[in-house]
């Protein structure tokens, strides 16, 4: 059996390199030069990586930027750095812990009270392939932060977004959603042996499914919602993946990864594009692979799965459903 280990490792390296190459060449700078003076933008997970670069790019374009982060020390530092680099003083840090429904409700209430408008909501924050942790409310961490936390946040800000229309919601998903499956019998991995990769893929599939369902619910409101795969980037998101735990992988795939993986600045371009591009006005319910619209995985387009997931998500986060409109209402 051992004689197959090296060839399989080589095959894995080759496949990984091919995926990175395709991802790298498909990217580029945001093609839109549109500015957003006076528009209020919320970016979650904006103290580092793609989120920070997204906030920076949108601050350069004149937006009123709210960095929504769990670590306020890092968030304040990022906000200060962005203000200094862009000379846009309308960049502020606010506390948001997506692993806490209480924190999400407090953040949304403060935004609703203090902000006249919210024009753009970018649900960017994520955790990836972490150990079997749970959120404050008992959700599996990746499902809780990547999906359920943003699901609640978005719903709590919908009235503000509708009042600010035309407005946009951008959900950062991942190409990994294609390997995902929604297990309604055990969404929180309480019965199965925990598989951190499968849990991540499930959370990112849930993001695309909810994007489709929310788009359907928002028809005629002037609020659009789209999902995207930003590309593979050099960020802190992959700190739990263990790619370098294998000496062979580190030696062979490592150099390929370093050469082809995107900088956070480049990986932020799809979020910027969906946020500002005038040609995307009115476009909703779509999935973008970097800068190009693309069909997502077949399960991501299953309307019945999307509706069922929406109802279950609303129950889990404590949103009551309005029977008249089929819309969640905050308690």
From TrEMBL:
UniProt xrefs under SUPFAM superfamilies: NAD(P)-binding Rossmann-fold domains (SSF51735)
Superkingdom assignment: Eukaryota
Oxidoreductase is among the record's keywords: yes
Keywords per UniProt: Oxidoreductase, Signal
Pfam families: adh_short (PF00106)
Signal peptide extent: 1-16
Family: Belongs to the short-chain dehydrogenases/reductases (SDR) family.
Protein name: Retinol dehydrogenase 13
Species this protein is from: Rangifer tarandus platyrhynchus
